[in-house]
């Protein structure tokens, strides 16, 4: 069996490979907290990959959930993700992690297997809670163990803002997977049609629809930032950085004339460094 340090290093490689933004932000944490964050991220990434890349995702996700239940009872599943289970066991030992948040994440990923179109913003928010706000709730006991209750609503809001940002950034990528997260009620309101979406039309109707959702995301970021002072200093900068770095994606998309069909917009390293300097300064 792997030792804990090696397991954490493998979790670190997962986040390095898949999310440079989060890695850059949370690298600022003290070692124990940082490692626990890597373990939680690896859990979320593995669930996400099962759904997006699994050969039999329904079966694999069910097996993963069963393994998680066994894990909670004290056994380490000897599967391809053993490194993650070993690291997560250490994280659960050190921090009072909320089991329900992990199950909510699995539930959210399962939604992607059964639901490919969304009809209302409320549905989008419910989905976003399960796949993104759940992550914030997983991390809270690590980042701010004494302020979990005070930060709960802010963590949920941050997850909603980030996931809606993901949706607005990944319109084309999601279409390639036959998923449509832009809600039909908004498309109807702004007279942007499914055929327009499928043809990657960027017109005033699309921009108005996109901006409607972007304003909602920005409202969630503001709500999250209101309670940021409750985080201990060691965690405040990484969490605030992740919020500001992610919010900046919306600004980048605007600068790129809303091109979200054929390009994946991102915050450059130079822009990331400027944001981080503005926080620490």
TrEMBL record:
One Pfam match: SQS_PSY
Pathway assignment: Carotenoid biosynthesis
GO molecular function: geranylgeranyl diphosphate synthase activity; squalene synthase [NAD(P)H] activity
Keywords, ordered alphabetically: Carotenoid biosynthesis, Transferase
InterPro entries referenced in this protein's UniProt entry, alphabetically: Isoprenoid_synthase_dom_sf (IPR008949), Squ/phyt_synthse (IPR002060), Squalene/phytoene_synthase_CS (IPR019845), Trans_IPPS_bact-type (IPR044843), Trans_IPPS_HH (IPR033904)
GO BP terms, alphabetized: carotenoid biosynthetic process
Name of the protein: Phytoene synthase
Organism of derivation: Bacillus weihaiensis
